[in-house]
Amino acid sequence: xxxxxxxxxxxxxPDVHTVIVDGTVVKRDxxxxxxxxxxxxxxxxxxxxxxx
Length: 52
Description:
The protein has helices at residues 3-10, 37-51; strands spanning 19-21, 24-28, 31-32. The chain is α+β, with helices and mostly antiparallel strands.
């Protein structure tokens, strides 16, 4: 039985506290640090308005 795989498979987004990618913290205390979600949503709406 692969216990590690089973645990990872059962976890969800709220269970992830910190994520480090290539030495950079991209999620700390459950919050994304590398993205401005407000700007990302705005850019997505702009793109969708042009393509639809």
